[in-house]
Amino acid sequence: MTRPAALRWIFLLLPVLVAALAACFALSDEDAIAGGDPASRHGMAPMPGNVAVPLKWMPPGALKQDPGPSPVVFPPQALTIRFNHKKHLDSSLGLGCKDCHAKAATSNSTEDYLLPQPQTCDGCHGTNHDNKAEVKAGGGSMGGCAFCHNGYKAGDGNRVARLVLPRANMIFSHQKHVVRNIGCDKCHGAIKELELATRDQLPRMNGCLHCHEMPDSASQGDAKSACETCHIKSKNGEGVLRTTFASGTLKPPKWLNNAGHTPDFIERHKQVAGTNSQVCAQCHSEKYCTDCHDGRVRPRSIHPNDYLNMHAIEARQATQRCTSCHREQTFCVDCHQRTGVSMSGPANLRNSGRFHPQKSEWSDAPRKPGHHAFEAQRNLNACVSCHIERDCTGCHGARGIGGGFNPHRAGFAGGCSTQFKRNPRPCYVCHEPGDRTLSQCQ
Amino acid sequence: MRSRSPALALASAAFTSSLSASAADYDVTSDTAAQFYDVRSPTGEVVYARRRVTTTLGVGAYNLVRQVDKRRLGADLSFVARVRYDADYGNGGFTDPGDYGQFVPGLSRGPVDIMYAYLEGRRLLRGWLGFRAGRQYVVDPLGWWSFDGALVKVTSPYHVAFEGYGGFEVRGGLPLSTGRFERDGIWRGDRSGYDPTLYPSFQPTSIAPAMGTSVETAGWSWLNAKLSYRRVYNTGSSNLSQFQSGLLTPAIYDGMRISQERIGGSVNFNLSNWGGVKSGMVYDFYGSNVTQVFASADVYATKRVTLSADYDYYQPSFDADSIWNFFGAEPMNYLALRGSVEATEKLSVSASGYGRVFSIQTQPTRSNSSPGLTDFYNPSVYPTNGTPFDAGGTASLRYRAGTLTLGAKGAGNFGDSGQRVGGDVYAEKLISQRYVLSGRGSLWAWDDKLRTNRDSVSGGYMAGIGYLLGERSKANLEFDHYMNSLVGHRFRLVFSLNVAVTP
Lengths: 442, 503
Fold this sequence. Notes:
By secondary structure, chain A is mostly helical.
């Protein structure tokens, strides 16, 4: 097998290799779910033994293969207490969500701290948190500091580990949802079935969209679908969403408009942008797009090093891809003329740049790869990136104008009247007004 | 900055009765890039030196109105504009059309154009109305396009939005314009100062009335669908005679005529647990044919893995003034399989393999001839295989950890006309929140089957250093060095300065 043939097979087999890699990761995912660190104490994890939470108890919108809430919107937490929601919400105690999270009903900002103050616990646990410098333990096993505070050590200055609960990087009003009678479980899942509530019990964007899918013109009471309903706008002008946070860069999940920003997304983003460019415009200003689509500096993410010297190979195979950013007559031709690649460039440069095969192969029969008719039929755009009309008319213009070699495809005469009626200009370039052939289209 | 112009205040009052002035956001941005490199011919000699300076200046004013209740999403007005100066001091500066040896028609040494400048209103009339007025882009299933005019969008509460626009296509040769958004096939520009017999293929530019409409879904995240129609006219005169010496006497066609009339639709449907499907097509009314079809299916195999298949159909089409619409170009079909793995939060990998099948004429097209045409009747001159194909693939890897980005991207393209294989590796690191170090290395080999002695292996590297002047401002210097057997050593120096000022 020759080297090029071997390379071709390698690239054709790449998807198979990726599929194999995928299978490996799929298995590793299952292993992660099946394993886990069995906890001896309750309230240390959402489920006893830290087993996976059943999907039906997860926040609405959680997926079958749920990756968790966005780490950018909900930064990592440090939960240093244990707590068993299931036990507290048991009907025998008569407690509800609002008994501990009373502030949630009136909260209008994600900056509000909605965890209960420690004094809330005092009534049942017999503790006294009034003076945090001198917290007093309660009686019995439930009143000890170590009962709730993980890692508490007696004789260590009565210190407890700091609980870190960063604010969510989003706009959210609990109050708006509460007054609309949207229960806690509609966003957080079945907390009453779980022990410790973790980041995993924070809302999924996919769940928000169950309601937030109303157009802007829907009545004021409905949940808008506009991204800035929940996402923070950039404070640096730009008129777009803020995407850079200390917790990372905000990017769309793969299920949102099918626009996951994978390493090859730049090569297939047109399918998303063409259908709904407003989705892109939420995070990217026009300047971001024009840097490539109307840019003047070669984008390295698209064109590799030394692309100037090797672009012809790729262009011949897929010039139609080039035209998404480059117009042939004003980008390609301009440069090809100056470098002498083009037939119609300055006369003193033409000989240096001729790069077609010899006439015996390029123009004479038979038509095979390397013959200009073969190449033109295969990828006419490649021809247009160098040539102007005159280059073709000399041979393909009808007799009296050119050599009379017919360039039209089979059946052309049967449908050309539409074109002639709407714009006869190109017809007259090659045919005289009285040309008998032209009358077939008139 | 809290002041608003009277005009904007009037506009906002006209559209919204329950709005009041609020703090607006403004920015002024400027991007400048200076590039220095030599362009060599395919046989290696330096043809001309490029000494390019491109600078843009943009202004933006956002949130010009805001609702009294800041917690409620309301109407919005914004204005954005960007002007560009794009100079190449190395192109020789030949400005005399009579200088046949050096002059390139249509090439301007330092053109200035307005990239975009428009006033935009959103969510007006309780969310029903949006508009744009000025020079603006349109991105739809028909592609990326620009026009001067007005666009109105009506969004109904029933998940359907309608859009209509009218104006003039942005065309090269007109003041403060670029030819980037015209359809291909016509070499067009400002012919003022040219003798009519000079460069007859270089067509005079003229205004191009344009109009279009769209209907699309609104609000849903699981379904986006859009149907777009666009019509553009050519106006003014056009040279028909292609030879200045005149095989015929010079002839001019003059009058309003179609430039393009196309309709395109696309659908993006997604099921968050399973995957998604995207598809679309474009029909060209002038050519009476389907010019583009695409379809893509993604399957979320696991939470880390997405497997995909892509299909593309492409039939070349051009501006209706162009003769190439009538050439026997055949369609291309492209099929690719892709896979993407988010191995960890930091590491992701993508790879694809593709086949691209072309159609080629294998039989004579006509059984009778006319005095004006010559046809090839001999079947033996035609190829026996009517579906030659190319194949290849890509592989990408990206690793992001904090302020470090590492990546690699490789590609292979194989076919009758040539083949290319190789890849780049790159790295970027932010140091001390100020300094950006970047580097890129590459190794590529290509084989040009259409001409001997143009095969080569290329090695190269880039080294860059940048300094963050602010959150959106950066100065950067990059040095490129490429080596291949065709042109020897080639160097490139790129200096860029991006500045953003926000009050």
